[in-house]
Amino acid sequence: MQTATIIGRGSAARKYDILTALGAFALSSHKHQQRLVLRLMTLITARYNWGRNEIAVGQREIARLWSVDERTVKREMAKLRAMGWLVVQRQGARGRVTQYGLDMDLILQTTQPCWNNVGPDFDLRMNGVPETSDVVPLPVKGSVPAPELSSGTEWTLAQGILHREDQGLYGSWLRALERVNRVGGRLTLRAPSRFHGAYVQTHLIGRVLSACQAVDAEISEVIITL
To answer: Are 134 and 196 in contact (CB under 8 A)?
Structure first.
């Protein structure tokens, strides 16, 4: 997702997505980090020029916005620079305020582990995956039938565990996976589409492997294929 300058069609939605990613990251962090990110989000909302990737505002004005003193502003801005999120583009001199930019690539990289906290749709969108008919909507909790366990294969039993853990996730992404074969500790599963397989491999493979190992400790690897 290219976000260095955000203008044109769809820009408003992308701005909200970035602020949502920052908010989700803040809420997953300790209280001091939460406050720092909240202050940055407020500064972005009030004074960031998305088209030019520019924040040009003095410490006194930031202090008033944040309801703090200028020493706190100096300290917090230094923290944001140390994180690499805030970059000095032009140092202030002779009455000119310092001009900052945001390293959006680094911000997205740092917040990425929290995208799925917002929801699978948000995670996919932020990863640049287009919304297509391949995306299965999450079913209503309780509407997904439990898998038939009579075959007794390791994958069938693992599906039973995954169903109990999260019916929505199971129904959307894991029910459609079919067992191909088992060679030693490697279990191969088939996905219904390339997109489906890529999503499971990227976001859910650890969960799948854990469920498989719960029923058969000799399984060391799960492969998703088409």
So the answer is: yes
Whose CA is closest to 161, among 220, 211, 219? 211
Specify the CATH number of the domain 154-225: 3.30.300.180
Tokens (6 digits) for 19: 């602020």
Architecture of domain 11-118: Orthogonal Bundle (1.10)
Average pLDDT score, the chain: 86
CB atoms within 10 A of CB 42: 13
Nearest to 184 by CA among 223, 218, 225, 152: 218
Q: What is the mean pLDDT of residues 78-96?
A: 87
Cα–Cα distance, 195 to 192 (Å, whole number): 9
Q: What is the pLDDT of residues 120-158, one digit of tens each?
A: 778 888 877 655 444 444 444 457 788 888 888 899 999
